[in-house]
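task queued by scheduler; priority normal; single chain, no ligands, no partner chains; default sampling; output format set to structure tokens
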Amino acid sequence: MQDSYNFNDIFKKNFLNIEAFSNISIIGVCVTLFVSLLIGLFIFWIYRKTFNGVVYSHNFNVTLVLMTMITSLIIMTISTNIVLSLGMVGALSIVRFRTAIKDPLDIVFMFWAISVGIASGAKIFEVAVVGSLIIGGVVFLFSRKRSKPYTYLLIVHYEIEAYFEIKQRLKKMNYAIKSKVVRQEVTELTLELKLKDDNTSFVNDIADIPGVKDISLVHYNGDYAA
């Protein structure tokens, strides 16, 4: 007569299954962590080369490498025993991350690192390697397209009589008015400029116009324009 098992029997069997841990070898752990490290360094390089934000964070980039290795270590551990997997889910469910991620692309890199760690920890190295090469190529392609033309924000504070001369200096440029604020006798004008190169000598020309109080030129990536 064939034995029947219920959920309690299966749970007890997995809980008492000590032999599952013997299937993990030191060499296997080292190979998995080494592959995770190599792909993590590839993610590190892609992030550094394609970063278009204001301030580059080296610590965040290092975190991506460590996240890849740690995730693979977790997957290797919970794949040996169902009780460990349930316990790990319960432990991770109480973790709260309070660091705000401002750039949506940073979230993509975090998911990329976690996905590589999961694939490596499950010893599906083909998925981790091929997937990373394709994702890296896509990110690199879109970042190169985005870098040209050079985009700047030009902020000018001037008196009313200087507006015509400013407009004449910007006549041949590709620009769009983002905001114009008038305060008593001084006007604040914010323009989005798109230049074919990084030649910004025109800033000095505008600054020399009578009636211009001050002028600022800020390089930006176009994500926060109103």
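post-processing summary
- The longest helix spans residues 26-50.
- The chain has nine helices and four strands.
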